Amino acid sequence: xxxxxxxxxxxxxxxxxxxxxxxxxxxxxxxxxxxxxxxxxxxxxxxxxxxxxxxxxxxxxxxxxxxxxxxxxxxxxxxxxxxxxxxxxxxxxxxxxxxxxxxxxxxxxxxxxxxxxxxxxxxxxxxxxxxxxxxxxxxxxxxxxxxxxxxxxxxxxxxxxxxxxxxxxxxxxxxxxxxxxxxxxxxxxxxxxxxxxxxxxxxxxxxxxxxxxxxxxxxxxxxxxxxxxxxxxxxxxxxxxxxxxxxxxxxxxxxxxxxxxxxxxxxxxxxxxxxxxxxxxxxxxxxxxxxxxxxxxxxxxxxxxxxxxxxxxxxxxxxxxxxxxxxxxxxxxxxxxxxxxxxxxxxxxxxxxxxxxxxxxxxxxxxxxxxxxxxxxxxxxxxxxxxxxxxxxxxxxxxxxxxxxxxxxxxxxxxxxxxxxxxxxxxxxxxxxxxxxxxxxxxxxxxxxxxxxxxxxxxxxxxxxxxxxxxxxxxxxxxxxxxxxxxxxxxxxxxxxxxxxxxxxxxxxxxxxxxxxxxxxxxxxxxxxxxxxxxxxxxxxxx
Length: 543
Fold this sequence. Notes:
Number of helices: 13
Distance between the termini: 60 Å
Strand content: 15-25%
Largest sheet: 5 strands, antiparallel
Mean pLDDT: 75
Structural class: alpha+beta
Helix content: 10-25%
Shape: globular
Number of strands: 26
C-alpha cells in the first residue's frame, strides 16, 4: 500500500508490506513500526521512483522544495534545493532581473551576452566584464601595473591592450534625466530596440558636457551596447576608439581601422575586419559579430552555442545532454520546464538536511549546480570559438556522469564524493593559471553548502584538463589543496615541471612557489583525452 501526503514544501511517500499501514499526517514521522524491507520512496515530477531500503528504526524520507521569486522561471530555473534562481550568463538576482553586463549586449532587445575581448567591443562592456572576472583588481590601473592586475583575473586579460570604443556626449546637450529614465533616453539616442540608430536625437546627460575632442570628454555609460558603431557616428564626433579600458587620458587613441582589424583566430585562418551588424543579414540575430575577410564579404561570425548564416541555429553540443528534452537551449544555458533545474534539467528533488547517512552500498556522487556567473563553459577571452579537441574530455565526463543515476545522487547527505564543475579550461585555457577562478568557485561551495567544511574538501573533486594539470595549485591552499584533482598528464616531479615551463610559461606561477608535486598518486586521478569529431568540425567552422 502507498500512503502519500503533500503540503506546501514536503512530500512523504511510504510503501509497506503491512496490510494496514498507518496514515501519515503533516509533519509527522513514519510509523513507529516499520517492517524491515519496507520502502521509502522519493519522487518528484516525472522522474522514476528510487527506493531506499530501511530498517525497523528508520524515519520517513523528507523532501523539501524551497520556493523562488515568482518571476524566476520567466528567464531562469528555480533551484528548489537552495531556493535560488538559476540564471543565464550575464544575469543574476531573485528573478534574473539584474544585468551584469548590459553594455555587452548587441542591441537593447538582445538577451545573450559574452565577455570576449578578441573583437572590438564597447569599453564600458569590457569594464563591466573586468569587474566580474577580475575581483580585487582595478581596470583603471596604469599600464605598468596591468601585469599584476591581470594576475588577479579568472581569465587572461590585460586592460591596457584591448581595443574598444567610447560613445561621447554630443556637444551642447545638458538634459537632466532621472536614473530610471536614463536607460530609456540613451536607448532612444542610440536607436530603437531592433538595433537601428536614430542619429537625430541627442544623448542625455546628468553632467555638464565637456569638449568632445578633449581627453576629458564625457563618455556615455548608460544605454550603450557593443555593436560596432556606424561610420556616420564617428564622422559626427560621437565615437572614439581606444586601446585599453582605463577611463582616463593615459590610454592611446587609435583609428577605426586599427580597432576593427582582427588577426586570424586559428592557424591557417583569415584575418578579418569587424563591421556594424547592420551590414549583415538580420544583424546576426544579435548572437555574433559581422565580419568580412579579403575573400568573403560581410557575414556572421556566431558566438559559441550558435551557428548558421544568421546564427539562427543552436549548436547541438552547446547545452549538456540537450537539456534532456525538458528545456530550451539558449546560448549554452538550459531554460528548463517548471519543476526541473540544473545544467541539463536533470534535477527535480530536494532533501531535507540530515535525513540520511552516507549510502551503505555503492558509490554515490553529488554534483553541485554552480551559478553561471561563477562557472560557464564558454571561453570568455574568445566568446565564439570551440575548445581544442585534446582538452574536451571533461565535457564527455559531465554528459555521461549527469545521466548515470547508478552513481549520481540528488541527495547530498548520502554522497561519498562531491563533484565541483568549475569548468576551469573555459577560463584559463591549456596553459593559464586556474587558481583565481577555482578559489572563487570553491569559496562559494564552502559558503553555500555544509559539505565542504566536514572534511576540508577532501571528498570534493575538480577537473583540471589544462597542460599543467594541478601544478599551479598550492597543496597547502585551504580551499584547493585537499580536493581530488582529475588531470590528463599526471605530472609528479619538480624536474618535470621545470622541463614543461620552458614551453609553457603559464606553469611558472605554481613552479615559482616551490611546489614539489603536481600529482598525488593514490589520491588524484589521471584520465585519457577524448576525441569528438563533431567538436572538431564545430571548432574549425568557427575559427
